[in-house]
Amino acid sequence: MKTWSRKDFLKTSLIGSGAALVAGSSRLFGQVAPAAGSAAGDIRVAVVGINAQGAGHMRDYINKLPGARLVALCDVDSEVLAKRTAECEKAGVKVETYIDYRKLLENKNIDAVVLGTPNHQHAVQTIWGLQAGKDVYVEKPVSHNVWEGRQAVAAAAKYSKNIVQAGTQNRSSLDIMEAIAYVRSGKLGKIQHARGLCYKLRESIGRTTGPQALPASISKEGYDLWTGPADLTPPRRNGPRGGPVHYDWHWIWNYGGGDITNQGIHQVDVARWFLGEPGLPASVMSVGGRFGYQDDAETPNTLITTFGYAKAPLIFEVRGLPAKTGMKAMDAFRGSRVGVIVQCEGGYVTVAETGNANIYDNDNKRIMALTKGGNGSHRANFVKAVQNRKVTVGLIEEAHFSSALCHMGNVSYLLGAEKSNAALRESIAWDLPTSEAYSRTLDHLRANDVDLATAQVVKGPLLNFDNKTEMFVGSDQVLVDAANKSPLHKRTGRGAFSIQQIA
Length: 503
Hints:
By secondary structure, this protein is an alpha/beta fold. Helix content is 32%, strand content 18%. The chain has 15 helices and 18 strands. Strand 17 and strand 18 (471-473) form a beta hairpin. It starts with 5 loop residues before the first helix and ends in a 19-residue tail after the last helix.
């Protein structure tokens, strides 16, 4: 099966979703009452997907989340599973282990599941967890496409005996809450635009010559489980960090969406929170490309996306190359590398990756440093939510909107075409924040010795969007159809991993 190149994306989108839609069971579980907890009253937690982010969850439940205890682990990689199990045993914690998440859900002695699996598994595993009577913590983004995110939201409403908290951890930041209140008080005037940044070094993952063999620790059946709702295709990457399966899936369209969905979901969520806009924007447009090297990765390492909200535009910037050739350090804009900058008439707010915030006037004089606390309490807030049976931070619908923003930006990029710099400048000149970001990006690419005369930038179309139906709309029916049929707008899964339509 071919990978998703931009050149064949439009054609693929016009004839179908690009997914292998195989008929299968649409529902594994009937709604089950929540587990009652252990005799000691603590919450019995299973962590699913424990190679990277899930390992951090696992350690928190071992060490510092009173009121909950770790009872099970699940991962399709037997080597990872054995390594984490040994880590638990060393800490004096005995866990049950699973390779198949569905088998774990049959265990009535598990109250809650924490999903640290890849993006393409999040929605279906959330839905299955709710149907099995489990409370769910699902990592960001909550979906791989807009449609399945909406199904997860609908599942949370339908199976309401259970709760869902999303891993949008900045929602637990007291500093951000205080900064938003300050902005909404009017002391800085109206918001002019909100900008999210992800300037993170992403080196080449190298290039292979074709399909790669699975590692010995992942069986054929295990890889089928790992692939889940995505197209079942042999791995076509083998980078030094993740090998043929792990981590580098972030840069492959079938599973991830690049850094706008990997890291950017956090900053997009904070920026949208400041704007106070309900739902999704009326339009989206992306500009970018993959520069500086050629490898097996498919997603852009340089991207500017503009979301057309009524109150003010939201702009997101991705940079994966360093400040200049030969360096490891990254660029910074107004002191931020990974963060949010909310520009108002009389000043601006910066939010760091940690969830801490500062308020400045337009002369860059700091008005206030907020120190109540960043986003470190989010996992503890999940334990409280399970105990109280109510989620107050990390609401699934809010996380769906912010996840969907990232997918919308990628749809515009994938439907785009290469343009000369002069033509591109002219096409975005109407939007000052985007034009300014593009000028800075060109300087950044020149500093990395990118020949802009030959490495043309992709200009995605300005796509209009209906917030109520969560569909792309407009007069260009060919373009609208392509956008709505793209796998990043809707993909329903395959076989036993098909996603039930609830909404």
